[in-house]
Design a protein that fits this description.
Blueprint (H helix, E strand, L loop, with lengths): L1 E2 L3 H8 L3 E3 L3 E7 L10 E5 L7 H18 L8 E7 L8 H21 L3
Parallel strand pairs: 1-4, 4-5
Antiparallel strand pairs: 2-3, 3-5
Helix pairs in contact: 2-3
């Protein structure tokens, strides 16, 4: 598992399908580099629409910990995922947040499995 860091990586994932949930939107796409086909890429985005720095950091910490606990389980190697936080990420019970992430990643896997590279 690796962290997405460059803007170009986030933009590449944004071109793929999306799975909306109350607390976040999951974006996913196949990895472009065949030599890194065994790696899962994860990115996290929390915009200023959520709130100030303290609020954004709280949402980021909650989502990061939930991802840490569930991955790499449902994620497919050779794919990148970006989690875009929504305001409900702050108030959603933590076990429900984890369940929603697992369900969204599984749904994304089904969508990506249907599409061709």
């Amino acid at each position: 598992m690796t962290r997405l860091r460059r803007r170009s990586e986030f933009l590449a994932v944004a071109r793929g399908p999306r799975v909306p949930r109350d607390a976040f939107v999951l974006q996913g796409n196949r990895r472009a580099e065949p030599e890194r086909a065994d790696i899962v890429g994860i990115g996290l985005t929390v915009t200023r629409k959520i709130g100030g720095a303290v609020i954004r950091n709280r949402a980021r910490r909650r989502l990061r910990e939930a991802l840490r606990r569930i991955l790499p389980g449902p994620a497919r190697p050779g794919h990148d995922y970006v989690v875009v936080a929504r305001p409900a990420a702050l108030t959603c019970p933590f076990p429900l947040l984890q369940q929603e992430l697992v369900a969204a990643i599984e749904q994304m896997g089904r969508r990506l499995g249907r599409s061709r590279p």
